[in-house]
Amino acid sequence: MAGTVSLASTAGCLDVVPFLGDDQTQIEPEDPGDDPDGTLEEFYYLLEDNGIIVEEVYHNTGDDDLLLFYDSEADDEVESEDEIGMIYVIFRDGLIDRGAELNHLYTEVSGNFEGQVEGWGINSEWAEQDLAGDADELAVFNQIRGTYIYPDGHEPEEAEIDESELETDSEAPAEDPQSNGSNTSTDTTND
């Protein structure tokens, strides 16, 4: 598929959570009513309406990034990932699906349990691929997990991720499970 960017190619671009600067606009919640427009203010409102305790939301107008600071009510990793999944779905459906022009969502999490993730991010391309059917929600969530920032002294648990889930280009060569992990295909054509 021409023009399709695989999730794997955008991994690693969320290594640094940006700091607040002069080109930040603080966002306030606004009820979307019966005819939502997909605004940043509606996103804030929808987060709170779905039980996310929002501290602040900023729009970095220079980079078109959204910065979300929230208080987690999670008591364990499963509940924390449920919150993250909820925020992703609201971001995907409430903003990206409605045409919002954003590059990333970065978060800072005020944790509720020892070792909880302190921040994570989403590349908007991942949500676009999910919406287009070029990637499934599980593959996107695994990409989000790859952006987690943990407190010092806490290492992430080893996740069992099937790397084949990250290939979204239908022309990508399949890896033989019997092989040593190297791909012997000589086709290097990029569409």
Topology diagram in text:
Blueprint: H1 7-10, E1 24-27, H2 40-49, E2 53-60, E3 65-71, H3 77-94, E4 104-110, E5 119-123, H4 124-132, H5 137-145
Parallel strand pairs: 3-4
Antiparallel strand pairs: 1-2, 2-3, 4-5
Helix pairs in contact: 2-3, 3-4
Summarize the structure.
The protein is built from 5 helices and 5 strands; from the N terminus they run αβαββαββαα. It is an alpha+beta fold and 191 residues long.
Provide a descriptive summary of the structure in words.
The chain is α+β, with helices and mostly antiparallel strands. The protein has a domain of 131 residues. Helix content is 26%, strand content 16%. Strand 4 and strand 5 form a beta hairpin. The longest helix is centred in the middle third of the chain and has 18 residues.
Into which percentage range does the β-strand content fall?
15-25%
* Share in helix: 25-40%
Shape, principal axes of CA atoms: globular
User: H/E series, N to C?
Assistant: HEHEEHEEHH
Class by helix and strand content?
alpha+beta
The low-confidence parts are 1-17, 159-191
Mean pLDDT, all residues: 79
Number of helices: 5
What's the count of strands? 5
Instruction: Walk across the major sheet and give the strand order.
Output: 1-2-3-4-5
User: What is the rounded Rg?
Assistant: 18 Å
Q: Could you give the distance between the termini?
A: 7 Å
Biggest sheet layout:
5 strands, mixed
